[in-house]
Amino acid sequence: MSLEQVAATVRDAALQKIGRNVVNFQKMEAMLKFILTFSNFAAPITQTGKHLTNQAKRVRSISMGVLVNQASKALQDERPPMPQDPKEIWVSHSFTFEDGNSDPRMWRKVMREVVRERNKLIHQMLASFNPSSIESCNVLCAVLDEQRDRIVPAYEHLQSIVKAIRESHKELAENADAIVEEILKRRSADGA
Fold it and tell me: Which residue of 38, 42, 131, 151 is 20 to 30 Å from 55, comparing CA positions?
């Protein structure tokens, strides 16, 4: 293999690893937005779709650092408040770190480190990168692999939160009729 071919191969590997890490950070940002949209909410059943749409719009353009802070708070909050005497059925959903195995402060610290890693990649690492230099490409590849290794646990944890929220929503959807029927039975038994 010629020196030019080696340089092209190493450059392509560096560019692929840049892309891989950027995509991972973007996916993590999307998962944070999902968590903020769907983790803790309470709304009248007729307004649930509108509420979730508004939540999604609200978080759409928030920076990753702000998303981490808001998600940390959302995952620590108690259940969203419900009206004392609702005029219609309300839907409430909350997802928190109440299991005792997760420390919200530690989670926030880990996620803030992810934000620092993201900012380092986007704002610093690439400034000195020389795609024509085999040595520069090799150094960047090693740094990007180390960075990926540092963020994978947080990535996987976010995935598990998103999966749990999706599963709870699926369960709710599958049992919605029975839940509404039970609520209506209770209301009629209470004379409401």
Answer: 151
